[in-house]
Amino acid sequence: MSNESIRSEFGQVLALVQEQMRDLSNIQQQRSTLAVKATAADGTVEVTVNAQRTVTKTVIDESYLDDHEITELGAHITSAAQAAVRQLDQRSEALLAPMNERRKAVSEISGNVIGLPGFREALAEVSAMGDSMRAQPNTTEDNGDDSSFPTIRS
Hints:
This protein is of the alpha+beta class. Helix content is 56%, strand content 14%. It has 4 helices and 4 strands; from the N terminus they run H-E-E-E-H-H-H-E. Helix 1 runs antiparallel to helix 3 and helix 1 packs parallel to helix 4 (119-134). The N and C termini lie far apart (73 Å).
């Protein structure tokens, strides 16, 4: 392969990596502000989950006991929280989709330039950044509410 074609491939890969780096910060910001609400028990139980997959708010409508038993409340809260986490995961994947596609493109066209000094390490670092975004955060944030009890909506 000629130097010109290697230079061209390197330019393409470099442009994709630079685009990836620009998007990384924006996607991290968007992902960190995600909060998803889901309901259960015919909408009388509402749970909000933040980007760290932590339940930040639980609201129980006053009418819950009209149609449901108090003994079922825990299962309804769990169900709503699980639905919210599934929605959160879908939204996170949608945010990461462009980066994942770009990473595939970099892998496909980087075959001839991968042997250049330092390039493999730089490419591995960019891949690791994408992987860390997909990893589940394990930190929790205080939502500022001192109450550990669900809100009862009237």
